[in-house]
Structure formats: C-alpha cells, structure tokens
Amino acid sequence: MFPLRINGLRFAPPGRVVLDGLNLELGGEGISLILGPNGVGKTLLLRLIAGLLSPSAGQLDWAGKAQPDGRLAMVFQQPMMLRLSVFANVEFALRPQGFSAAERAARTNEVLARVGLAQRAADCARLLSGGERQRLALARAWAMRPRLLLLDEPTASLDPSATEQVERIIREVRTDGAKVLMTTHNLGQATRLADDIIFLAEGRVQEHAPAQRFFARPQSPAARAFLQGELPWRITFDR
Ligand SMILES: Nc1ncnc2c1ncn2[C@@H]1O[C@H](COP(=O)(O)OP(=O)(O)OP(=O)(O)O)[C@@H](O)[C@H]1O
Ligand SMILES: [Mg+2]
C-alpha cells in the first residue's frame, strides 16, 4: 500500500476551502507527524486518508491502487468506548476482522498486557481515566496489527507520565512494523517521536522534512512563525 501518494487533495465545504490542492508522499516506515495551526485541516487529512470522508477533488494513490491493500486503523482524539469491559472493547473490535475466538482472546490479552491494562481487563471501559482510555484505544487499534496507524492528538489532555506511556506504546507500534501518521500540538513530543514532519498551512503541505532539519532550519516563513508562536520561549533558527 506504500508509497501513499496524495495528489491535489481538495476539501471545500460550501462557501470555503480547507484543503486546497494538497500534495504529499508517504513511505511505509517510521513516524510521520503532522503539525499546523488549529483548523488547518490535520484531523480532516487523517479522516480523508482513513476513507471516512470523500475529498471534493484529488486522489489518494496507494502504490498504484485506489484502495489500500493493507489494514489501516485510526484512533480519534476522544476515543469512543463501548459500555462493556476493557477486554470486550478490544475483543469486539477484532470480530469483523475474521479471527477465531481463540485468536481474538489471545490478541486481546497480549495488547492489554503491552499497554499495562491487563489488571483492568474486567473493569468497565467507561470508568477508565483519560490516560487509561487513550492506552485502551491504542491497544484496540494495535490488536488489529494495522500496516498504517493514524493517531489524532493521542496525548492531548494527558499528564506527563501518561504522555510518556502513550509515547512508549507508539514507539513499540513502529518497532512492530506499522507506519504511524499522527498529529500533535506538543512540540516536545514531536521532537521525541517524529522521524519526519509534515507542516500544513493555508490548505497545503508547506514543508515535509526530516524532524531534526525541520526544527533546526524550518524553510517556510509560515513554519518559522508557527514554531515561534507555539513555544514558550524565543528561539533563533540556524541558517
Ligand atoms: N466533515 C466536514 N464538513 C465540513 N467542514 C469540515 C468537516 N470536517 C472538518 N471541517 C472543517 O475543516 C476545518 C479543519 O478542521 P480540522 O478538524 O481538520 O482542523 P485541525 O487542523 O485538526 O485543527 P485542531 O488543531 O484544532 O485539531 C475546520 O474549519 C472544520 O470546521
Ligand atoms: Mg484536529
């Protein structure tokens, strides 16, 4: 399914244009992080890639095909939980995937252990804290062993320790061989996790660069202004 080539993607609800001919090429390795101001279309881009919405124009080309031929999972910013146990929330998600009951149970136990929720398997998922919910949502997606994992601000509103736990899980997902494409407003997280940065402004990808280079030498004025505005201290960039 990789490389994913996005050509001229446009999303224009009545009276406005959000994505205006966006181009992007994504390889199948590593963690790619989408940065950009509020409302620029980061969540929208993830939803378009997940096939949850149709663009007004433009195409997604999955290694020459119109549809991905590998599994894809998305974790939303506020993941929905069924009013069932932690275990059932993962196991139910695996049912449409064609696994046997024994395999579903084995995978569920494995991912719950990996995200540190094995002891909570029998508890009602709705009673979990924000950080625990986020880990459960990641476990649910991970259990499907997606080739591409889309994460929308997976640590928004988590404390530093919960953020660290979620970041560790995301790294493990990458090590397992999944491609991760995610958004964040946490620039510290971006420097810790990202292999490459995709910077969106004015409906397009303004920069797509290795993370180290992006943070040391952002090329576009929009990216420089964004980084200055998001950081609590002033920085000067290398030339
Ligand atoms: N299905 C939709 N129909 C119409 N407009 C939409 C739809 N989805 C998103 N939009 C609009 O597209 C714009 C971009 O929204 P999006 O949620 O992608 O922003 P974002 O970059 O994720 O912002 P934030 O950083 O605040 O999460 C918003 O103005 C939003 O109202
Ligand atoms: Mg968003």
Averaged pLDDT = 95
Query: What structural category do the secondary elements indicate?
Result: alpha/beta
Approximate shape: globular
Major sheet: 6 strands, mixed
Question: How far apart, in Å, are the first and last alpha carbons?
Answer: 37 Å
Q: What is the CATH superfamily label?
A: P-loop containing nucleotide triphosphate hydrolases
Task: Give the strand order of the largest sheet, numbering strands 1, 2, ... along the chain.
Answer: 5-6-7-3-8-9
- Ligand catalogue: adenosine-5'-triphosphate, magnesium ion
CATH domain topology: Rossmann fold
Elements, N to C (H/E) = EEEHEEHHHEHEHEEHH
Give the helix proportion (percent range): 25-40%
Strand content: 15-25%
Number of helices: 8
For the record, the CATH class is Alpha Beta
Summarize the structure.
The protein is of the alpha/beta class and 239 residues long.
Description:
The structure is a single chain. The protein is of the alpha/beta class and 239 residues long. It has a single domain (4-230), classed as Rossmann fold, CATH 3.40.50.300. It contains 8 helices and 9 strands. It has helices at 42-49, 86-94, 101-114, 130-143, 160-175, 187-193, 211-216, 221-230; strands at residues 4-11, 19-26, 31-35, 57-62, 72-75, 148-152, 179-183, 196-201, 204-210. The strands form 2 sheets. The protein has a 6-stranded mixed β-sheet, with helices on both faces. A 3-stranded antiparallel β-sheet has the order 2-1-4, with no helix packed on it. The termini are far apart. The relative contact order is 0.17. The mean pLDDT is 95. The structure holds adenosine-5'-triphosphate (ATP) and magnesium ion (MG). Magnesium ion (MG) is lined by residues 42-43, 152, 183.
